[in-house]
Prior knowledge:
The structure holds two protein chains of two kinds.
Chain A: E1 3-11, E2 16-24, E3 29-33, H1 40-47, E4 58-60, E5 63-64, H2 70-76, E6 77-80, H3 92-97, H4 112-125, H5 140-153, E7 158-162, H6 170-187, E8 190-194, H7 198-204, E9 207-212, E10 215-220, H8 222-225, H9 228-235, E11 240-244, E12 247-251
Parallel strand pairs in A: 3-8, 3-9, 6-7, 7-8
Antiparallel strand pairs in A: 1-2, 1-4, 4-5, 9-10, 11-12
Chain B: H1 4-28, H2 37-45, H3 59-92, H4 105-120, H5 127-145, H6 152-176, H7 179-189, H8 198-217, H9 221-225, H10 229-234, H11 239-261, H12 267-279, H13 283-308, H14 315-333
Helix pairs in contact in B: 1-3, 1-13, 3-8, 3-11, 3-12, 3-13, 4-5, 4-6, 4-11, 5-6, 5-11, 8-11, 12-13
Amino acid sequence: MNIRVRNLAFAYEDFSLRVGELRFEAARVTSIVGPNGAGKTTFLKCLGGILPVPRNCVFVDGRDFATLKGREKARLLGYVPQEHDSAFNYQVMDFVLMGRASYISPFALPSREDARAAEEALDFVGLGRYGARAISELSSGERRLALIARSLAQESAILLMDEPTTFLDPRHETELLNLVRKLAREKQKTIVVTLHGLEMAVQYSDEMVFMKGGEVVASGPPGDIFKEPLLESVYGMKIRIFDFEGRKIIIR
Amino acid sequence: MSGPSDKKKRALALALLILPLVAFVVSLGIGTYPVSPRALVWVLTHPGASAPPEGVSPAVRDVIFKIRLPRLILGLAVGAALSISGAALQALFKNPLVNEYILGISSGSAVGAALSLVFLGRGFPPQVASFVFAVIAVGAVLLISGKAETHSISLLLTGIIVTAFFSALLSLIEFFASPYVLQALFFWLMGSLSLASWKDLYISVPLIALGLVFLVMLRWRFNVLSMSEEEAKSLGVNVRREKILVIAAATLVTSAATSVVGIIGWLGFIVPHLVRLMFGADNRRVVPLSAALGASVVIIADDLIRGLSSFEIPIGIFTSIIGIPVFILLLKKARKVWL
């Protein structure tokens, strides 16, 4: 399933987002990068229908996303927020089950099938044994995985993730990005992810989108666009890129 | 996943669901007028006008049907109503400090019922005005706290302000009420089951039952609704619509209860916390079990009131005086975080 963006405009009080033409394809990882305040998260929330976008801006498989009901949106597209913070300490399994909300009538309880989908999702992210634990007992890396599992239980073809690697140590960051890639390769998901770490973004993305001041300044495969002049203009500082065993190292 | 502790919990949950029924039957035999178990069984199995057997006073039938039965049914309904709305509102506002009292629903209901009593008299059902004013109060809280309603501080502050305003209105009504009305008003306001009559029941109990069924059916949904608004939205929930429905149901049951027994504070706050302490956060358990525990607590508290003293301490005062220390004790004892 793909997402197509056409002349999307969204404004806050002192910030405006404008995106002309952009496509996100199935089975690919697209990362959105750029400095703080560039509008990455706003863009992601517009794509996810969390912020109210006007009609004829965002199309999922050709269908105007703004015209769909909440339930329909959730079945097509999952949104993984940066952090989960709740006053209530649910068990991990109950938390992941919430991903099934769009399949369950408000007056019904989750079925066996829903429970199975949630268990599978937990297994896929490697938290299979943690179902009975409380969310508060998880480390921050595990909590990110639980959030991803909840979106997987949604069984949507598209996954949007807002800075899933922030505050993770290098090992957990790598593991999480491997998982993201696996989701694209094995489950054919369309994945859009905002990232801060450029080196990891280059390594794990099939496509990159550079944003600055609410606009997209460049997009395409990293091999084509990941160049020093672009980085310097986006971040407003001197940046050198070195190749090391086929990987990009950034010196600033 | 279902270890031994899970089985134990399930048994405990089942026991808690049956508790209101047991408490109800036992309570029928408790009170100033002694009713033996034999007499109780006879009355319940012979609701008609047949003559009582030897050793059973004919007055027993009146005591049971005219006094205790309405009182107990009302107690069950009120306890369930206040506790379930507490549980529902806490989940909805993602805030364990919220309950129907904090959101102004209780004082709004009280003002409505008091106005009804003063201006429309005893003949007119107080439930109507009670619901209308409860809606005004909670609507004011939500409008004033506005977009910031998910920020707990501003919601709580607004709730306190609106509650204070409606309490002042209530004092004003009391100030102008005639001494005769004032006495009834005063006793009712402190939360009392002693005035229970079938007339009150006919209106309030069906309303409460309606709201209860609605909220219990939504029990799993409350898990999703307790997520941040963005999360709930991304999970496919029409947050605005469901929020309004839940608030309406909680307001309905609270006003139906408050209009006949006055304000019983703390119940809607303490009971859901106790249930979470015992069973965890999952609202599939918290919501129905809060109703069951709340119903039981109210009629057991009422038994104690009737059993301990010959005069009637209003139950609202009683639940606060007993409930708060119990709650503090449990808080101290429970090492684990349950919120």
